[in-house]
Amino acid sequence: MKRVICLITVLLASSLFWFSEDQTFAQKFDLKMMTGPMGGSWYPLGGAIADAVQKEIPGVTISVTIGGGVANVEAVEFGKCEIGFSNSSSAVDGVYGRPPFKQKMANMRQLANLYPQYFQIVVLEDLGIKSVADLKGKVISPGPKGHTGEFAARQVLEIYGLSYKDMSKVHHVGYSDTVGLMKDGHCDGWLFCTTIPGSSVMDLASSRKIRLLILPEDKIKEMQKLNAGYIRRLIPKGTYQGVDYDVPTFGFFTHLIISAKLPDDLVYKMTKTLVKNVPRFGDVVKDMKGVTAKDLALDIGIPFHPGALKAYKELGVL
Cα-atom radius of gyration of the chain, to the nearest Å? Predict the structure, then answer.
């Protein structure tokens, strides 16, 4: 009888162990990823990343929604989403609790660096606008509020002694709507940040003659004083139809942030999935072509999630 009782006890303990293992293995994660506006590069890339993760990691589902660089940082911080696209300049501001943030973003972690973005100022050629100073009294579109590009647009106007109050009208709309407004002559200037060439700008340039405004070196340095995360960039001539001159400007990196509350093992697997699927992502967004695991692991001043850190160290790139 003692042997029988002992055997039953062992079997019960084993079954409980395997049940626990199965439960852990089968744990489900319904995650939300916030990207960018329609017409930009973030939304389609976010869809490709979500698809790859869902295929590689059983039990994980990711819903992809639109968002913005600043808004996404706050969304991750306050639990409105678990994963978000952002820009290095905004996320670094979030780490230190600098404007436009009202407090330090302590729940935000770095998942992966992705590719560079370029701040661009597009105007209609026939209006004779040659400088940011010439935007005074004009109709502009700096993008929706809560986007990194919109915050940067305000800063660009600021270094020229301007603000939205100096404009005749300000449209806070996305890329597609802005292109429509400019094609119809209802918007004079477009200030935003995206990859080059931007598909929406190419669309506009196919029907209206455009000009890209150059930012002089002293103005770029003023922007860098406002945020050390701004990097000098150059839009090469020929990037857009009719723009046969180089355009000095500034920019930052697009990257993925993630909630510190997600389990290390899950984030570790997600990081491995990102590295494995980089070639596929390059087919979705041109700027991802040639990106390596070392690029994904670039330290841009935001603390890595421990799961991501483990994956990059294991790969020998960090």
Answer: 23
Tell me the pLDDT of the chain averaged across its residues. Answer: 90
H helices within the chain, ranges in order?
2-25, 42-56, 69-77, 88-96, 148-159, 175-183, 199-205, 217-226, 264-276, 278-282, 293-296, 306-314
* Greatest Cα-to-Cα distance within the chain, rounded to the nearest angstrom: 99
Handedness of CA 46, 48, 49, 53 (dihedral sign): positive
Give the CB-side neighbour count of residue 164, counting CA atoms within 13 A.
14
Q: 189-194 and 247-259: which strand pairing?
A: unpaired
User: Cα–Cα distance between 289 and 277 in angstroms, integer?
Assistant: 11
pLDDT at 20: 39
Q: Render pLDDT for 90-110 as a digit per residue (tens, 0 to 9).
A: 898 899 998 889 999 999 999
Q: Is 202 in a helix, a strand, or coil? A: helix
Confidence (pLDDT) at 6: 53
Contact status, residue 252 vs residue 89, Cβ threshold 8 Å: yes
Contact by Cβ (8 Å): 101, 94: yes
- The string of DSSP codes covering 94-134 is HHHT-TT-SS--TTEEEEEEEEEEEEEEEEEGGGT--SGGG
283 burial level (CB within 10 Å; 0-12, 13-18, 19+): exposed
Q: What would the pLDDT profile of 140-179 be if each residue is shown by its tens digit?
A: 999 998 788 999 999 999 999 999 999 999 999 999 999 9
In three-state secondary structure terms, 231 is strand
Q: What three-state secondary structure class fits 162?
A: coil
Structure tokens at 247: 């355009």
Cβ(70)–Cβ(88) below 8 Å: no
Rounded to two decimals, the pTM is 0.72
Regions of the chain short of the pLDDT cut 50? 10-25
Structural contact between residues 253 and 113, judged by C-beta atoms closer than 8 angstroms: yes
Q: Are 249 and 217 in contact (CB under 8 A)?
A: no
